[in-house]
Specification:
GO terms for molecular function: DNA binding. With about 575 residues, the chain is mainly α. The chain contains 23 helices and 2 strands. Among the domains are: about 260 residues, no CATH class; about 130 residues. Strands 1-2 form a two-stranded antiparallel ribbon.
């Protein structure tokens, strides 16, 4: 991981992004006297050991008992919390409003959760650090940069980085203490802390053990379902985001989505995003019903085992085919169990464990299940693949953006302008054509990217990506469509458009997952992935999927994932 981070840091200085908005204009005092962050009730306990001043970049939680917190760290928490509230929160949704859950719900939970407070501070510190890097890279050649980066600046950067790591380590340590407690593990603040730590990893590099994070979330959501007292539905928006992140990550990283319809106990064509989710993810919720299936289709295309979809007989008593498990009260889904049964069966020896990059791999019980499948199970894979491929293809081709439905689903107090609705339609079309391009590659793994079928679909993605209003808040959601289209793009002008879009998103957001994605695309465009070499796998080697990016990310011994959000 250190080598990946160093490589991305070097790549950052090769780009010439626009000036970073919001960095110079925001100068909230660290001594602002609103909420006294860092002094919440003792909901998250800590040990009496100190935090190393310069912790390693990828700590092991087991080896690092943590805090009381350095008083100097507490003093600056107010600054980071206000930076998160005033600068970051508006950019974490499509349309900002009084009920923005990243501001309204997260900060409400943080008032009583030190783990969440430290996760917020880690994210804010990381975002500031990355925007500073972008500002230094803007308009300076290497010589100028070296001259301007004086020793005091270096020392300041090191101190800021140390604070960031301390906040991150504290958040992880306190989170693990909550996960050790069956009651606390079911709390909304636990989900919020993991969500902010996911954002931290996206801001830092976009490369982490996201699959194990989502496996941990799956375990936690299972605990919440099994609780005798169903949790509030205030956290439904967080469950929706995890479901979306998992699906997008699965489509890129050679796996099946874990938070799918089988997990939620609904039929395969059910909604998994609640009404109004477009404001959180930028993708039409109707369209997402198909996009979530792409990772599964990829696995099927490689004759690899997949989870069994729910049959009608197993879905009795579950929500209807069109009902989302996240959009309304789902008390009937929660099956009370005796407390001793919960503790003994779910928490005994394998409670979720977070290490700052992801949850421990022993959570992934599906891996054990699929590895036990007999060879006879592969016989029906091709017919299953083509049946599900056809269903997905028809759904994508027939989908149409319904502006009135989306407007009606927006939360109270939120209104959209005509331009914003138009941008959301263009954004959803970019997703649709990227998904069509994805299915085209699955159906034609050995056809060159220069074939008209691919070129036409790439052109559609690029067209809709460039149809957004200049500086539109919808642009930040474009990374997945741009990455899928960019991986098949052979036209240099279109490559330049994708490159510029990725840089613009990175410049405005300060999220380095955009740089990680662009780095992969640059390697593909220079021929590193090869257009046809090894498509579909090679005899005697680990099987890879039909996508060119699989030769640039992942592989034997690599346990991290790239997330394109």
């Amino acid at each position: 991981m250190d080598s990946i981070e160093a490589h991305l840091s070097n790549r950052l200085m090769e780009y010439e992004p626009l000036a970073t908005p919001g960095l110079e204009s925001y100068n909230t005092s660290a001594h602002a006297d609103r909420h006294s962050w860092g002094q919440s009730p003792d909901k998250d306990s800590t040990s009496s050991h100190g935090v190393p001043e310069h912790p390693p970049p990828w700590p092991s939680v087991r080896d690092q008992p943590t805090p009381p917190v350095n008083p100097d760290l507490i003093v600056k928490m107010q600054f980071y919390m206000e930076y998160y509230e005033n600068v970051m929160c508006p950019g974490m949704v499509f349309i900002d409003g009084p009920n923005n859950p990243f501001r309204d719900h997260i900060l409400s939970l943080a008032a009583n959760s030190r783990s969440l407070q430290h996760a917020i501070c880690a994210l804010a510190a990381c975002n500031l650090r990355m925007k500073r890097k972008l500002s230094l890279a803007c308009g300076q050649d290497d010589k100028e940069q070296n001259l301007s980066h004086s020793m005091p600046d270096i020392q300041s950067d090191q101190r800021t980085l140390s604070e960031e790591y301390q906040h991150r380590n504290l958040a992880v340590h306190l989170l693990n203490e909550q996960l050790n407690d069956p009651t606390k593990a079911r709390g909304d603040a636990v989900l919020a802390t993991i969500l902010l730590l996911c954002h931290y990893r996206m801001a830092e590099s976009g490369i982490a053990k996201f699959h194990t994070q989502f496996a941990g979330v799956k375990k936690i959501l299972g605990l919440r379902k099994s609780s005798p007292y169903p949790p509030s539905r205030d956290s439904a928006w967080m469950e929706a985001l995890f479901t979306y992140f998992d699906a997008i990550s699965a489509s890129i990283n050679e796996r099946e989505a874990q938070l799918n319809t089988s997990f939620y106990g609904v039929m395969p064509d059910a909604h998994l995003l609640p009404p109004g989710a477009e404001n959180l993810v930028g993708c039409d919720r109707e369209l997402f019903r198909t996009i979530i299936k792409l990772g599964r289709l990829n696995i099927l295309s490689q004759n690899r085992p997949v989870q069994n979809l729910l049959s009608p007989s197993t879905s009795r008593g579950n929500p209807s085919r069109s009902q989302s498990p996240l959009e309304s009260s789902i008390g009937h889904l929660y099956k009370p169990q005796h407390p001793h049964h919960i503790k003994g069966d779910i928490f005994a020896n394998h409670h979720p464990r977070f290490d700052g990059i992801g949850f421990r791999k022993n959570l992934d019980e599906e891996q054990i299940l699929v590895s036990s499948l007999s060879s006879a199970a592969y016989d029906d894979h091709r017919s299953t693949f083509w049946r599900e491929w056809k269903d997905a293809r028809i759904a994508l081709q027939s989908w149409e953006f319904d502006a009135q439905r989306v407007l009606a689903s927006l939360s109270d107090g939120l209104s959209a302008t005509h331009a914003q609705v138009r941008d959301l339609g263009s954004l959803s079309e970019a997703f649709r054509y990227a998904a069509l391009l994805y299915t085209e590659r699955l159906a034609s793994p050995n056809v060159p990217s220069a074939h008209n079928n691919f070129r036409n679909l790439v052109s559609e993605v690029v067209y809709y990506a460039t149809s957004l209003e200049a500086g539109s808040s919808a642009e930040k959601f474009l990374l997945w469509p741009l990455f899928v289209a960019g991986s098949e793009c052979v036209n240099e002008m279109q490559q330049g458009i994708v490159r510029t879009k990725c840089r613009d998103i990175m410049t405005r957001s300060g999220y380095m997952n955009n740089l990680a994605a662009l780095d992969v695309l640059e390697r593909l465009w220079t021929g590193e992935g090869g257009d046809q070499q090894g498509r579909g796998g090679e005899p005697g080697l680990m099987r890879r999927g039909p996508f060119s990016w699989t030769r640039c990310i992942g592989g034997p011994g690599v346990e991290v994932e790239w997330i394109m959000f």
